[in-house]
Amino acid sequence: AGDSKKINKNKDLLTPVKRGRNRLQRSISNASTATTATTRMEENFDMDQLSTQTPDAKGPMSRIPEQTIHCRIHGLIPLPTFARRIIDTPQFKRLMHLKQLGLTHYVFPAANHTRYEHSIGVMYLAGKAMRLIQKRHPELKVEKRTIDLVMIAALLHDIGHGPFSHMFDGMFMPKLFEGQNRKPKSHEEFSLEMIDYMHKKRKLGGLTDEEVLFVKTLIEPEKFEEEREKFEKKYKGPWVYEILSNHHNGLDVDKFDYLIRDGTMLKMADPSQAIARVMDLMEVHNGRIFYPLKAQTDIYEILHTRYMMHKKVYSHKTTKNFELMVLDAMLLSSKILKIEDRIKSMSKYTNLTDNILNEIRTSNSRHEDMLTAKNILKAIESRKKYTFVDEVLIRHDAWKAARKDKEGNIKPLTEKDIIDLKAKNCDLKESDIILARSKLHYGKKEENPMKFVRVFKIDKTCKPPKKLFCPEGGHRDMLMANVPHLEHIVRIYVRKRDCAKAARETFRRWFFEKIRKEKSNKGLWMEKDDMDNYYKTNSEGRDSRPLNKTASGINNDSKHPSKRQMITRSQSQ
Questions:
Q1: What is the Cα–Cα distance from 344 to 177, expressed in whole angstroms?
Q2: DSSP string, 437-501
Q3: In what order do the strands lie in the sheet containing 486-494?
Q4: Sequence-ordered list of residues with C-beta below 8 angstroms from that of 474, at least 6 positions apart, any chain
Q5: Rg of the Cα trace of the chain?
Q6: Minimal CA–CA distance to 76: which of 85, 84, 67, 88?
Q7: Cα–Cα distance between 573 and 497 in angstroms, integer?
Q8: What is the pLDDT of residues 419-446, one digit of tens each?
Q9: At 255, which helix (H) or strand (E)?
Q10: pLDDT tens digits, residue range 46-102?
Q11: The pTM is what?
């Protein structure tokens, strides 16, 4: 009896162990069954069916949602099948290593966003605009395939950008081919070559040759005039070319995305409400995009935001300083890194990104130019910049009059133009100074962009109300009429601080003799000693305030507190 009790006690102790073992075996069995089912589902999975599935569809695909990504600017963005096929290529992933604002992050640390998310954002806005037009204008018969092609063009419009974005094609390429009979390519031309390369390698999701041509005309309309006319007839007007790259008035989804994105990331501007309103109100009439008259203030806000972002961010003097230093480093190392050969081949160009600075840092070459380039990059990291000397802001009419040659062409400004006016006893050399010129405008250079905005208004006095159209911005005189639409910022830097004083004097001599043509320091920065002499000698700038008064207007000679309080109180009133 005692032995049987011990056995029963042992059974009671082993029962929980057996239960746990049985549960473990059942869980393993269920997991293997689920794995088998998942494997069968993956075997039957087809990416081509993803875009054709509907919520009512039956089968394993009905449980797979459409892939989306989260954008900080636009929120959730759905990615169609054709977009994923393009995004998941080395050529598009390359945009992850190209900063949207180049070297601006050395001045504004938050400017670390890339061309990758910008391109996806432009694709989203392009699809949104096309679907709105499709819904609002059924007479245009906009097909889904047309919307897809416009979105593909938006996705690929910046795929040809080089290292540090516009610095590469705007500064590096002209210097690289200087003295050669070769015209430097723009980033749009690189994009067209990259699209042809991807189409040849079948990385564009099976687009036909005609569809690829249409995509290229959307990116660079002015290069394909004959082909563009054919597509304009097909799509009932040139309105389709005003979505992505609008050369008529500059209002396009590319500009909309980078203004919102750059302004949000840097906390410098927020035109999102104006852009949303303009996109919601646009209509197509007579084959062109029109905006209601009430949206003109929003349009002006967008154009003014572009001008201010260029002035405060894109053309910042310190950013330009770093760009000039990186430009010198890239020019010195270009032959060793074979940059020119990498430009010719799109397969090699795929690996040409902002990481070129790391290629210079880690290069094993002991060439003198490479060592100098490495020293420049070390100076950048320790923030030992070139010395900024001076700058002037010149209106375009003055610039045009000063730089026009006998044939009427505007000559580019070079360092030699400045050095030619140096003093006789000055030993300043052309290689000591660097000139940087930036253009500030509202999108149409010297033209008023509001002049090119087509507007309409609703006349409610008629029954039913009628729409009245003004093809080329009839109310443009209300906005930006007396504003200079194009200005030039000319800056001078020196590589050696010892040359700064001589460079400033020579630069001002050039400005007075060639631009202003009058002997006056008005509007220019000066040192304290120069400022004291200026107020003493210049009748126009003499301080007319009494010597016994401060800037606040309080009489220092008066020691009576009530009188001092009385003067202050009367001024505040």
A1: 13
A2: EEEEESSSTTS-GGGG--EEEEETTSSS-EEEEETT-TTGGGSSSSS-SEEEEEEEEESSGGGHH
A3: 387-395, 486-494, 433-441
A4: 455
A5: 32
A6: 67
A7: 50
A8: 988 887 788 889 899 999 999 999 988 8
A9: helix 253-266
A10: 433 333 333 333 333 333 346 899 999 999 999 999 999 999 999 999 999 999 999
A11: 0.79
